[in-house]
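Schema walkthrough. Field components (list of strings):
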Amino acid sequence: MPELRDIVTKVRSKNAGPFWLTIDIFCGSTDAYRRVSQGLSTSRVAAVFQTDGQAIKRFDIPDLNVVKFSLPRPAVQGSVGDRDMHGASWAALIGDIEV
Amino acid sequence: MVRVLIPSGALGLNYDEKALQRGIAAKPDIIAIDGGSTDSGPSYLGRGVSKYARASTKLEWAGLMAARAQAGVPLVIGTAGTCGADTAVDWMLDITREIAAEQGRPLKIAVLRSSQDGDLIAQAFEAGQIMPLANAPDVTSDMIRSCSNIVALAGAEQIAAALETGADIIIAGRTTDTAIIAALPLMRDCHAGAAWHGAKIGECGALCATNPQSGVIMIDFDNSGFTVTPLADGAYASPHTVSAHMLYENADPFILYEPGGYLDVTGAEYTAIDQTSVRVEGSEWVPSERYTVKLEGARPAGFRTVLMALLRDPHYVAHAAQWAEDIIDKCRAKVMQRMGLGADDFALELRLIGHSASFGGLETRSAAPLEIGVIGIITAPSEAQAAEIGKLLNPYLLHHPLTQEEEQPTFAFLFSPPEMHQGQVYEFALNHVLHLSDPMEAFRIEVHDIA
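Field assembly_structure (string):
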């Protein structure tokens, strides 16, 4: 199965304030959007973060060919366990997901 | 119509001079620039300092002050000095005075202060005036009192009050990113949904367009919508680049909470006017019953010492995780035994760069690296204790063998001493809103006349 990064234009992750992380998947085409929107479940994203997924907000935005997820940060920004101050590297882990 | 010129997403990131001049020639009503964010972490708010170099800030601010004088309109900076605490505002005021003296122009400066008194915030918390937002940390009034800095995020009302002083320059403490852009259009009865939506689109400068590094954009607000135009050569906005900006660093791309209400862009329509400009209509502002402002706080969270070593020996590179785990077990035991610290009194962690430093236990891949950087991260209650734990960790990072049988290895240290002391570290302590009976209740404005 192809990885998410091979079928979309870009996966971006960023802080949305110190307590939330937001992931934007720019699919780049209607076809890719349909594959991601239908083929990437919220629970699959939750599994990447080893959470139950209840706190994950999902937005499927056909006008932009974007699927977006927002979730509580794996560690609060800048706390002892935080590994990435700006939250940008998580995109690589999401890009690895097989769709 | 109100025309807002936005030189860049933040003072300190530079802007395109030619594009700025183009903006001045277009006769803006105000120049607005953001000066901060929480995005660089809790240390800046904790210490009340700016992340950007004073030299860069001064150079860029001097350029904007000269442009302002040329245009004869107000110049406003929000969240001055990265965190918007009073000390950072004072730093910005000091730079402004210095430039004013060098440029030799009389100036009226309004300062909007957002710093909060910890005791008063703790009392408000006890009185039920402070409510948690989603995923807020659990707080107590003691935790609130232990914050080194608490700021409230000013909205359009407080910026409007500062503009009403007739100041040439407004140096604002912590504000929402949007408030400095939305304030004047709202004062002049432009469409409220458009004022906030345009402000959100413009708050990162040209990030809503192509050629985002150029910074400079112009937004025209009127009574039915707004029009965004990037001003640098080769920069253009399209319905896609503009609408996609609502995704940026935003948990919800359709709803944006602000003091006094929220913006709903679900019904917004984006239309290309020409090759560079986009028109947006249909966004809605929904006023709230209660007026609340968001709070940010940072409190001391111990002292940190960091060590780094390099593994290049293939045997150790191949077994780095096991090696690191063994060091953590042995070193933690030694810290407790020799320093008398409890297990929860300190944190000691080894991250393996090239192996699993990005995601730790959440990593899903593995590959054989050539070398591994080992970073030891120590957090302890005092600077002396953090340094002492660093010295206990030092011999392990230098010589720890995988098994008793093998010859004692020696790994690469980069420096003498290898311990790097980061001093006091901070943590974000609040993700809450404060209820106000009057928007100015938690804010202060002072006016400085420079002859």
